[in-house]
Amino acid sequence: MSDFEEYIKKHFLEPIRTEKEIEHAIEVIQSETDNYIKKHKLRSLVLGISGGIDSAFAAALLKPVCEQNNISLIGRSITIETNTSDEINRSILVGKNFCHNFEHLDFTEIYRLTKTNLYPTNQSALSKFRMGNCKARLRMITLYDLAQQHAGIVISTDNFTEYLTGFWTLHGDVGDFAPFIHLWKSEVYFASSVLSKKLDIDSKKALSLCIYAKPTDGLGISDSDFDQLNVSSYQEADKLFIKYFKGDKSLENHTLIKRFHSSSYKRNNPIIINRNILTS
Question: What is the mean pLDDT of residues 136-148?
Answer without folding.
Answer: 97
